[in-house]
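Can't paste images in this forum, so I'm doing it all in text. The chain is below; anyone willing to post the predicted structure tokens underneath?
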Amino acid sequence: MDSWKTTALWLLAAAGLALMTLSGLAAHGLPFIPALLCVIAAACALHAPTRGQVMDKLLRAFSGSAVRSVLIVVGALMLIQLLPLEMALLLAGDVLVYLEAVMAISLLAAGTRLRPMRAAIVARAAEVMTRLTARRRDAVRAIRAPRPGGRRRPAPDDSDGAWAFA
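Text version of the structure:
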């Protein structure tokens, strides 16, 4: 590859990494890795011996068994990202236990506070029910009172032995 094409590629990489660094700074972050790679790419674009050293290191890193080593390191770095999740789940379980204890105590306290109210409601309901049943009892007695001078009819005679069907 020609020297000017290689320089152009490194300048393009440096410009892309500079944009990533600026977007990270705009988001109030600390984009250390894009900034470092941007500086390395700019150095490779502007200085030929530096470009040669970086290219040699990259070729050695991504050839043969070095690729396997890099994949293992990348896999380990990916798995270490799960550590905060595991810690969060562990702490969430602890928080749930604490929350459960607080809720049990608050339910006991609510039962203690509501016991007098419950007794007052039961007493009021019993009073209302006694009034309602007393009125009903008086009404039932008024309906069932015997009539003066009323006669009962005699029961029909079933002397013939036949069964009567209605």
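The helical segments are 3-26, 32-46, 48-61, 65-80, 82-144. The mean pLDDT is 81.
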